[in-house]
From TrEMBL:
Species assigned in the record: Daucus carota subsp. sativus
Keywords annotated in UniProt: Ammonia transport, Membrane, Transmembrane, Transmembrane helix, Transport
Topological category with respect to the lipid bilayer: Multi-pass membrane protein
UniProt protein name: Ammonium transporter
Keyword flag Manganese: no
Gene3D superfamilies reported in the protein's UniProt record: Ammonium transporter AmtB like domains
Pfam families linked to this entry: Ammonium_transp
Ranges for domain Ammonium transporter AmtB-like: 25-439
Entry similarity comment: Belongs to the ammonia transporter channel (TC 1.A.11.2) family.
SUPFAM superfamilies: Ammonium transporter
Superkingdom assignment: Eukaryota
One Gene Ontology CC term in the entry: plasma membrane
Subcellular location: Cell membrane
Single GO MF annotation: ammonium channel activity
Length: 466
């Protein structure tokens, strides 16, 4: 069977020598898996983890953010995050992408097209904004959210990405962040908590009683999140190599350990095995391993899982309830604990457990590390302490920047539209906000009575309401 190409497109242009088809196939798969974490993963998780009257609004916030981030990302945000340096914290907006740019080799040491990287990084950006939204469910005005998403992506996320992953002042030979413990999770946790402060709390009834409306769907959404993390961490090397395999295995080891530890603590102290608790433990494990997935040994991933299942459990289940500061901010899904606390923990533990040879394999240079523990064995303790200093500096910068910029964005939006819904809308929920309900079954959610034919005795018994 022969393949015919147009006159202006040769075989070498369609499949150039630098292209590794296995790497390309894996990278596209990994990017799709990260996208599936958001749509439908977090759409399902948010829509089922909240009170019934907020199911549509919560799911739709995630659905809208995914689309809005994509358009902003390809138009200008990718350039801000990964373009040529404008200043030390952000890139410059170059011309719009052309097909020649997207089809060219991403970088000399990687054998995938630039389009792969653009899409993969978009999926990262989208899930960051959606995770942040978990702090705001059940009361943020949807029109305010529509403005918040592009503004926060532009002025907060791109700065963190450029500073640590692009060409910023923390990138070259400094911060270890394999897949976004700082760029994604710490920033979403801090920004979500900050935005929750400015938006204000849910109404008192919702805050005191906020049961999930569908536990089984909640588990399904969590499953998308867990298995999608295979691409989240496995895609960062941009190649289907050995370090990719290690990153994937470590991801699941840490996650399973964290889930079991969180579940055990719930059973010990509360005498019940909570499904919500298990999901929270799953999330903290995924977050904690993210900054070090492919640059630590599997035994270290096990330790990281034990710590991510216990330390965030303590801050959420004990410290949060005792602290007036935490009680004053209504973080709906506890994103501060599951992402900010677990993200910082993972970043610091990566600075301790990172292996020199694995760092060299991932970063393709010798400027990173060594991890503190490894530096002791290599008699390079000063290098290990210096790396820990960089890890702390990165956490401080991401925290301070997100507090300042998120506050400024909320203040700006509040001058245009109220951040928080009206009290009457808060009482009704989805029907008041969108004119739709998640479970509009007969007799429950319909404003008008069913048609006469539906109530007639001649209707088949299968369709009659008993």
């Amino acid at each position: 069977m022969s393949i015919f190409y147009p006159d202006n497109l040769s075989t070498s242009e369609a499949s150039p020598e630098w292209l590794n088809k296995a790497d390309n196939a894996w990278q596209l798969t990994a990017a799709a898996m990260v996208g599936l974490q958001s749509v439908p993963g977090l759409v399902i998780l948010y829509g089922s983890m909240v009170k019934k009257k907020w199911a549509v609004n919560s799911a739709f916030m995630a659905f809208y953010a995914f689309a809005a981030v994509l358009i902003c990302w390809v138009l200008f945000a990718h350039h801000l995050a990964f373009g040529k340096k404008l200043i030390f914290i952000v890139g410059e907006i170059d011309e719009a992408f052309t097909q020649e740019q997207l089809r060219q080799q991403f970088k000399r040491d990687y054998h995938v097209p630039k389009a792969d990287y653009v899409f993969y990084q978009f999926a990262f950006a989208a899930i960051t904004v959606i995770l942040l939204g978990g702090s705001l469910l059940g009361r943020m005005k949807f029109y305010a959210w529509m403005l918040f998403v592009p503004l926060w992506l532009t002025f907060s996320y791109t700065v963190g990405a450029f500073t640590i992953w692009g060409d910023g002042f923390l990138e070259r030979g400094r911060i270890i962040d394999f897949s976004g413990g700082y760029v994604i999770h710490l920033s979403s946790g801090i920004a979500g908590f900050t935005a929750a402060y400015w938006v204000g709390p849910r109404n008192s009834q919702d805050r005191q009683h906020f049961p999930p409306n569908n536990i089984l769907h909640m588990l399904a959404g969590a499953g998308f999140l867990w298995m999608g993390w295979t691409g989240f961490n496995g895609g960062s090397p941009l190649a289907a190599g050995t370090i990719t395999s290690l990153a994937v295995l470590n991801t699941h080891i840490c996650t399973a350990t964290s889930l079991l530890v969180w579940l055990s603590l719930d059973m010990i102290f509360y005498k019940k095995s909570s499904v919500i608790g298990a999901i929270q433990g799953m999330i903290t494990g995924l977050v904690c391993i993210t900054p070090g997935a492919g640059i630590v040994q599997s035994w270290a991933a096990l330790i990281m899982g034990a710590m991510s299942g216990s330390i965030p459990w303590y801050t959420m289940m004990v410290l949060h309830k005792r602290s007036a500061f935490f009680q004053s901010v209504d973080d709906t899904l506890g994103v501060f604990h599951t992402h900010a606390v677990a993200g910082v923990l993972g970043g610091l533990l990566s600075g301790i457990f990172a292996e020199t040879n694995l760092l060299r394999m991932f970063y393709l240079q010798d400027n990173y590390g060594p991890g503190l523990l490894c530096s002791i064995g290599e008699n390079r303790i000063s290098g290990g302490l210096r790396q820990m200093g960089y890890q702390i500096l990165g956490a401080l910068f991401i925290t301070v920047w997100n507090v300042m910029i998120t506050s400024a964005i909320c203040f700006l939006i509040s001058r245009v539209v109220n951040l928080r819904m009206d009290e009457k809308d808060l009482l009704v929920g989805d029907d008041a906000v969108h004119g739709e309900e998640a479970y509009a079954l007969w007799g429950d959610g319909e404003r008008d009575p069913p048609p006469l034919w539906f109530r007639t005795p001649r209707m088949p018994a299968l369709f009659r309401r008993h």
